[in-house]
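tokens incoming
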């Protein structure tokens, strides 16, 4: 079996669902169920014996080690993290705790478990660390995209904590020989995306008749990748990646935030027209994010050259699937819009005067 951390979050739950749709190899899904973890994402696996869910914190080294020794996974795929840049600005502590200390605890548990495996299993074991392109910092319009050799220059507490975790993973390979793999991916979108992030927030606010908040001038560029493509890339790296290597994963799809929001408004105007006017009328410019990275872009040629992966979805096809999913799953959105989430919205947006 494989041991997945953070498998109740956005990308982790997509990964678990895709994995079990394509393979009968069981998954032990270990997740703390923070505000971002949602077992409703995995409802379709409720009676599936191939999916074992355990609620727990990756900082609990002894608990993780006991599970590894009990279930004997052949790989760990590590998604668990605090993942929202704005939250890291308002409260960095949890990011240091989970992303740095938590990854350290997980590595220590993995090292102990792996060190005691028989030779054949030891050689076959993998620790795959899921990371972000944000560790590379920000690009100017004329800069080449981030490659695996771009120096790390993180600018937010989130990206700094992910950078630290990447370095820890690297050190466990070089120092202890732990068979690690790291992926650094660009911005994902797709089903089960928590509605605090740009794309699901805009869809949800548009349908709710609320303002669509654009930070600053809306000309910040992100490289958007459909989540199913990210999951496929992780499967490929897990199966064929060279030990100790890092692989950049991206969609070759750079877009300014305002263009993304315009695309969403235009699609909703067609699929769910308003009584009068366009969803674009709800766009509201708000105060910029402090330290806001201007541009991310990924050079994903290594992954294509070495492992033959490239994205299957274009932005047009992926965003069409995504908008359709949100229209059909409004109940999921309403469910996650819990009391705690409402408080977050007030905290993040109250001092961003238009
Ligand atoms: P998410 O916030 O949606 O989910 C994170 C999951 O981790 C949740 O289920 C949460 O309950 C769990 N978790 C948090 N702290 C934990 C802890 N201490 N112990 C156990 N579980 C814990 O995040 P996501 O967007 O699915 O991102 C998953 C991973 O992919 C992260 O490592 C993130 O840095 C990375 N990543 C995300 C993106 C993106 O666009 N979302 C892009 C590149 C990389
Ligand atoms: P986000 O989805 O938070 O991802 P990240 O910060 O990891 O790239 O934000 C994507 C972009 O959208 C980023 O440039 C910030 C911007 N943004 C807004 O303009 N308004 C919003 O309300 C949010 C949440 C994000």
């Amino acid at each position: 079996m494989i041991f997945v951390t953070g498998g109740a979050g956005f990308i982790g739950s997509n990964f678990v669902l895709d994995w079990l749709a394509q393979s009968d190899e069981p998954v032990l899904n270990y997740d703390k169920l923070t505000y971002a973890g949602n077992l409703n994402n995995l409802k379709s696996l409720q009676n599936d014996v191939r999916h074992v869910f355990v609620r727990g914190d990756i900082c609990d080294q002894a608990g993780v080690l006991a599970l590894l020794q009990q279930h004997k996974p052949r790989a760990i795929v590590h998604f668990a993290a605090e993942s929202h840049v704005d939250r890291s600005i308002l409260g960095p502590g949890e990011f240091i705790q989970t992303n740095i200390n938590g990854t350290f605890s997980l590595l220590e548990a993995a090292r102990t478990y792996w060190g005691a495996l028989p030779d054949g299993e030891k050689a076959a074991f993998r620790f795959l660390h899921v990371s972000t392109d944000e560790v590379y910092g920000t690009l100017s319009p004329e800069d080449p995209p981030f490659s695996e050799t771009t120096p790390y220059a993180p600018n937010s507490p989130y990206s700094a904590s992910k950078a630290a975790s990447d370095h820890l993973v690297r050190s466990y390979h070089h120092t202890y020989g732990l068979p690690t793999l790291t992926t650094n991916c660009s911005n994902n979108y797709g089903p089960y995306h928590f509605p605090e992030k740009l794309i699901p927030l805009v869809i949800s606010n548009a349908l709710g008749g609320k303002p669509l908040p654009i930070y600053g001038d809306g000309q910040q560029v992100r490289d958007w990748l459909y989540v199913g493509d990210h999951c496929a890339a992780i499967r490929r790296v897990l199966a064929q990646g060279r030990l100790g290597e890092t692989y950049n994963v991206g969609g070759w799809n750079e877009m300014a935030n305002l263009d993304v929001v315009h695309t969403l408004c235009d699609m909703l105007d067609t699929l769910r027209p308003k009584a009068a006017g366009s969803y674009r009328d709800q766009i509201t410019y708000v105060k910029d994010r402090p330290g806001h990275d201007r541009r991310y872009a990924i050079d994903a040629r290594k992954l294509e050259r070495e492992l033959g992966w490239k994205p299957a979805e274009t932005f047009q096809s992926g965003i069409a699937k995504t908008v359709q999913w949100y229209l059909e799953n409004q109940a999921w959105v309403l469910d996650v819009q819990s009391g705690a989430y409402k408080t977050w919205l007030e905290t993040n947006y109250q001092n961003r005067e238009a």
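note: The mean pLDDT is 96.
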